[in-house]
Amino acid sequence: MNTPRSTRNSADLLVQVIYERGQATRAELGEHTGLSLNTILRLVSELRGRGLILESRDAPDGNGRGRPSDMLRINPACGYAVGLEFGESRLTLVITDAVGGVLHWTATDAPPFVPSTSTLDHLAALARDFAAAQGIDWHHVRTLSLALHDLVSAEGEWLSWSNLGGEPVPARAHLEAQLAMPVHVEDVSRAFAEAEFRYGAGRGAPDQIALLIGNQGVGSGAFLNGALMKSASGIGGEIGHIVVEPDGGLCQCGNHGCLVNLIVTHAVVARFEDRLAHGLLSAIKSGEDITFARICQAAELGDKAAYTVLQESATYIARALASTLNILGAPLVIIGGQYRQAGSRFLDDLSIQLSQQVIPVLAHQVEVRYAELSEYASAWGGALQALDRAWANDVFSRQAAR
Ligand SMILES: [Zn+2]
């Protein structure tokens, strides 16, 4: 819940306007807040003194006279955010500055993916260790985010696919109590979509859906009219459980032929191995160490058997996505995760099939792109969301006032 503007003091309001806009002049702050120029001059001077904002002349050697046309920005060094992405055998950490710029990141060994408070304690300790290793004082970290490869409720509870119907783990509440700072817990696919929307392949497009396809799961995050879609319960984006093959195998959700079981990378490898066992010719030989990456490489070099299994994935994804695009009206699709290795032909195949299956008015707008950001995208996206919340709740200005 954001602090209502009416109950905020004027200094917090100014800071929030500068954070949301990225930069602003004193005159623009006057227009946006209705405060007099005299009040703004006084508050800006106070905020600069507290180290919360900078003006263009502050760097590198400004004299700080503060004309109304000088540009004001948040001081990136006024605090930090830590973002974690956590899944089966996957832990990525980022540290950002106060406006979301990535300062450091790492991918490291993950603790067992078991929904419990002891796992959360382990993650909190790893986050502290990571900040310390980068020379960042934990007292300057203002917020932490945890992007989970699992179901997450709107209250930040960890609802596990492995324990449906069991007691949810109060991840946000537990970490906030442990760390004494605001914590944001999010579904990894929405965190991933957030980063790609702001800084990756989705920049500038108001309507888009990002798919994160991994070794174990498939999720999605959608933006409509520039806003991330999120239900009141927090559950959503479960595109992996759209049935695309009614005669397919049983899924953990209880349906048969869900998308997830057909396109996750280990399923593609299994399909390919099955073809080899039935005598299909390929440059990859049965008994070799067959990985998804190896299949993508062979497909790129013209291996028909290898490309066929990727093409099947494109067909399954198109079946699930076409209806989704029709419902959302979002023509831009961003593909993230290991499928980024699948090459331009896979992207073209998916794009053509989607164009053929969506309603005509959307068909000519359909565009499929690979995600652009590095492998820390999901950890970063969560940190960006956590920062938005922290600024909206005056966390930075309260800490700076101490
Ligand atoms: Zn399912």
Q: Identify the overall geometry.
A: globular
Q: What value does the average pLDDT take?
A: 93
Structural class: alpha/beta
Distance between the termini: 23 Å
What multimeric state do the chains show? single chain
Question: Could you give the order of strands across the largest sheet?
Answer: 6-5-4-7-10
Strand content: 15-25%
When the domains are counted, the total is 3
In the CATH scheme, the class of the largest domain would be Alpha Beta
- Beta strands, count: 15
Helix content: 40-55%
Output the CATH topology of the largest domain: Nucleotidyltransferase, domain 5
Radius of gyration: 24 Å
Structural write-up:
The protein has 402 residues and is an alpha/beta fold. It folds into 3 domains: 5-74, Orthogonal Bundle (Arc Repressor Mutant, subunit A), CATH 1.10.10; 79-188 and 379-400, Nucleotidyltransferase, domain 5 (2-Layer Sandwich); 201-372, Nucleotidyltransferase, domain 5 (2-Layer Sandwich). The protein is built from 14 helices and 15 strands. Strands 6-5-4-7-10 form a 5-stranded mixed beta sheet, with helices on both faces. A 5-stranded mixed beta sheet has the order 13-12-11-14-15, sandwiched between helices. β5 and β6 (102-108) form a beta hairpin. α6 (188-199) crosses α13 (377-392) and α10 packs across α11. The mean pLDDT is 93.
